[in-house]
Amino acid sequence: MSSKGGTALSRRSYRLASDADNPKVTGIVNEKLLSDYLQHVFPASGKQGPASAAYRKSLTFQDLGAHLEKLLAEDNVTEDSRDQIEGCLGPLTVVLDHSSGFEGLLFVDDDLLGVIGHSNFSSIRATTCVYKGKWVYEVLVSSQGLMQIGWCTLNCRFNQEEGVGDTPDSYAYDGNRVRKWNVTTTNYGKSWAAGDIVSCLIDLDEGTITFCLNGQSLGVAFSNIKTGPGVAYFPAISLSFKESVAFNFGSRPLRYPYYFYACYLPLQSPPTTDLIKANRLLGYLKTVLSTSIDTQLVERDSGTWQIQGDPTILVTLAHIFNHFAPLMCKVYLVEDVLMNFLLSILEGGGSVDEHPLIQQLLDLFWLLMEDHEVNECLKQLMMSLLRAYRFSPIIPDLGFQIHYLRLTTAILRHEKSRKYLITFDVLRSVVFFYIKTPLRVKEAGLDELIPTTWWPTRFDKEGKDERDTCEETAEERLRRRAYERGCHRLKKRIEVVEELQVQILRLMLNNKDKGTGEASRYIFLNKFRKFLQENASNRGNPTVLCPPEYMVCFIHRLITAIRSYWDEGKRKSPGSISSEDDLAAKANIIIDPAEIQASSMDDLDEDEETGAAQRPSGAVAMGGALARPSWLSSPTLGRANRFLSTAAVSLMTPRRPLAPPEKVKVRTLAVEQRTEEDIEGSHGNDGLLLGRPLEEPDQPITEKSLLEILDGVVMMYNLSVHQQLGKMVVVSDDVHEYAVALKDTEEKIARCPSRRLDILEELQKSQKVFAEKLNHLSRRLAWINATIYSKEKMLDVYWLLRVCIRTIEHSDSTGSLFAFMPEFYLNVAMNSYSALKNYFSPSNCMEELPGYEETLTQLAAILAKHFADPRIVGTDIKDSLMQALASYVCYPQSLRAVERIPEEQRMAMMRNLLAPYEQRPWAQTNWILVRLWRGCGFGYRYTRLPHLLKTKPEDANLPSLQKPCPSLLLQRHMAELLSQDKDMAASFLNSVLNQLNWAFSEFIGMIQEIQQAAERPERNFVDTRQLKVCATCFDLSVSLLRVLEMTITLVPEIFLDWTRPSAELLLRRLAQLLNQVLNRVTAERNLFDRVVNLRLPGLESVDHYPILVAVTGILVRILVDSDKHGISRAASVLLSDPCFQLRSIQYLLGEGDAGATSADQKHFSLHTCNVFPSQPTSEDDLCPICYAHSISAIFKPCSHKSCKACINQHLMNNKDCFFCKATITGVDDYTKPASS
């Protein structure tokens, strides 16, 4: 046997020890001692009889080969193969039938055992069937969606709607819906989750089918199944789009072996003879490791064994490996023999460093096995570890996960093995960085770890949690503290797993390998690039895409590993750490304005042609009409992209004197052609990574690889991490909703009359259900808070935000570099701030982060500058920036941050907001101006519209539902700009009036159509989209009126000082629009009234109050609060307008005719308006259909009641009463009698 190299023994010594024609080799030790040693290692079996005694006397290396062959030949027993077991038909190797046994579109793995659904409902069966006996196979569930797993006959015909279990001779278990299927369906089993193992057992002697979940029987699912001649059952599955599983028919050891299932056999027989051989050879290997040769044989601890170049031991091992190596290429033996042996080495506990034997064994593998054998062995070992880790059940101490991660760490500590294993698809190793969330809390042992549960019990009027611990009762305080202690225990156990995961990543990122060839970090970097490219392209086989939940865990471990390596590098140059910035000190990111200035890329543009040629074909939708590459974002494509890299071009650079900048020669190489020097740069070449001017000869080149990985981290966050962070918040929302429901139920129980025992019983049942659900969810939330929303994870996201902010600042300060910055940096800056504000609270508070206010101000400056940056031409990113700024000004803290940015930037922002609306998207900027005014206008201090106060908001955290927080500073800037620049003021106001005219006209047209549809006898259903557009036009009209109110309040001279050229024209246009609005909205029994009274779902915001108080605010400002000349000018213009009607003003003020009947008094007026209607005092006042609005309608002739919204929606399609099914002939307004 040959080897491509060894660690402690030269190839020449190894060959000398191997050749049988060199008898002097045995003279290395005493001949008798050698014979005793070999007899000790390879004891003869008792089957050899008396003659074996003489044979043992002279056992030498020359005889060892034959002796070993003879010992192993004894193991060639007759296997219990399927040929000898009646009841199974088909190939000996059982796989999925991808040639004829499927329906629909599926992706099948190369090993024909894994499958992903790629159509509505795809089905596939195996190549082997059973007709007699007891059989079992396992399914590893990779996703928890809709699947039906079980057995079917050859006669079953499936389609895109019907799968396994939907035909007479097929039987299935569905853990998604927790049901069993055989044409009909009933409840069965438990819900499954990704990472579970389903075992499918069939007993054809008894005619039963049973399923197990993670080794626990779910009971007999089907009995008396059809058996007999011509009936045979195939393993089969039906699965919906993008669901995935992997089958194990016996090609690998069953996770829950067949002896566990009481004589059930796997469909594929295990390699019994090879198993016996492998275990025997492993026993010989253990004996060698635990025996040392001195003057006699000495037993010793095998854990301290090392290769010491002893020819006797090495030749002995070579004979063992001659037989052992070929067996270690088989997946079954690797998993059953080798992996279990390596795991047993680590069972003693202690750190991985305390078990050097695994390193020594891997040295032996590379020394005594062919390269292709050791490669295949390591590949199968790593795949087995991945499967074992992914499908390990969760127990309180996470013991299984820790066990497999410790072995992975031990293997990756071996340099040569690590370099080979990193060449695997990075996606597979990402599994190691994921900690799955348990869906079944009890099985995961969380009820033992967190015995006491707690959830918020105090809520404000809008349903928000009031975190005032002062009002807690003693019992609540004890429960909360006990729950927090349980959460802390859980977090500590999860941190052990996370630390092991970071160790694995640190090994992969090691760039100080002692061997030859590329360092581990560069191999990882190449695979990482490919990983990002595949996940960014959204093309190709979905099997290569990394699930978002994996990506979240991966990004946190990667950030931790990057920062630890960065810290190590900076500790070697302690002068680089600055105390100016708390975060910069922690992350060792240094900001030096001088460097930012000096590292400008302007000096690179030697000539325009060269600069244009080197510019990547699509470096983001910025800076001119640059085309976008097929998968934007690879941080490795464009050299200029890499020049910027992340924050690091200037952020992560030690302070040093600046040399004059030099020109940089640009190199481009295909990814496959890049060497380590190309990536990192060396000597006179700065590498492809950053292309930085050669002004920093003492900068460690290793920093650049970390920067490229950091680029990838930013890109990963943009790809899927942010969406997943938002998705997992749903558990916290569920806890909140159930807590509100439980509190409501408890209040109803307290109010329930003692005579109504039936109602009390139902309420108590509801109370029990809510409490059980809350116990489950609160424990699950503890797990999610520890793995996803912990303080440490929050600091990671905050660090990423800081990196993006500094990168954007740096690229902007260098001018031309901004065009090359990937747009996802802007996205991640906005999204990470949003995540910190919305997803990590209330468990962690953003205000407690280091440098929080400074970061807010920096982000505010970026948003204020770039939301109207002409260099940004991508519509998506422009919209995102606009929305981020609009959200920013809704919250007091972030609004104050906007006010803290330099005055010059504030003025520039306001100037952009006041640009004419016709030339750009204007709705968002108008909304920003409205938010700056809200709280100052007439009747404009409300958070929610007064008529909606009785209803519960869908999401009280929406920016539009935040309390008013006007900015007097920005209002003052707006006043200065409009008063000083007359042309800008005129163009801005003309555009606002134009848009108001359009929006209000569109709104009136739409409500006419809605009214006509509602009045038709057939009551046609009004399109929901039409209702939404109608409400949007109304909201736009109100917001434009508020901007006009704001302008006329801050700068009244624009309208009233007729020395200004456009003042009179603007005032006449304003009066005309105000009169149109008043006439349409205040007229008696008009169109607007009728549509408002319909109370259609989707038109809740359409009401008299918001639009009329906005008009009133403008009228008050020009007719009441102005000086004498202004009032007379405004009054004369208003009265001279042809549309003016005094009756509209009277209706608005509530000054109707004295003889008006009560029916005429129903219209809205400021006089009768109740801005703060009383809350319903009891449930009897609420609509019994929606329980959201008060009762406002009574039906004829049956006199049942509901709110208008519910009855109007119902009458669109049906004229029968909700309750008694009588035909409704009319609907009248209902007002609760005062006496009741």
UniProtKB/TrEMBL annotation:
Compositional bias annotation for Basic and acidic residues: 673-683
**The protein's assembly and partners:** Component of the KPC complex composed of RNF123/KPC1 and UBAC1/KPC2. Interacts with UBAC1 and CDKN1B via its N-terminal domain. Interacts with RIGI (via N-terminus) and IFIH1 (via N-terminus).
TM spans, by residue?
none
Descriptive protein name: E3 ubiquitin-protein ligase RNF123
> Which keywords accompany this UniProt record?
Cytoplasm, Metal-binding, Methylation, Phosphoprotein, Transferase, Ubl conjugation, Ubl conjugation pathway, Zinc, Zinc-finger
Q: What GO terms in the biological process aspect are recorded for it?
A: protein ubiquitination; proteolysis involved in protein catabolic process
Q: Name one GO cellular component term.
A: cytoplasm
Tell me a Gene Ontology molecular-function term this record carries.
Answer: zinc ion binding
Please write the reaction equations for the catalytic activity of this protein: S-ubiquitinyl-[E2 ubiquitin-conjugating enzyme]-L-cysteine + [acceptor protein]-L-lysine = [E2 ubiquitin-conjugating enzyme]-L-cysteine + N(6)-ubiquitinyl-[acceptor protein]-L-lysine
Domain B30.2/SPRY spans what residues?
74-254
- Entry-linked PROSITE patterns: B302_SPRY, ZF_RING_2
Enzyme Commission number: 2.3.2.27
The protein's annotated pathway: Protein modification; protein ubiquitination
Q: From which domain of life does this come? A: Eukaryota
Q: Does the keyword Ion transport apply?
A: no
* Residue ranges of the region described as Disordered: 673-694
Gene3D superfamilies named in the record: 2.60.120.920, Zinc/RING finger domain, C3HC4 (zinc finger) (3.30.40.10)
Domain spans labelled RING-type = 1183-1221
Where it sits in the cell: the answer is: Cytoplasm
Which coarse location class applies to the principal site listed for this UniProt protein? cytoplasm
The protein's matches in PANTHER family, at most eight in alphabetical order, are given as:
E3 UBIQUITIN-PROTEIN LIGASE RNF123, RING FINGER AND SRY DOMAIN-CONTAINING
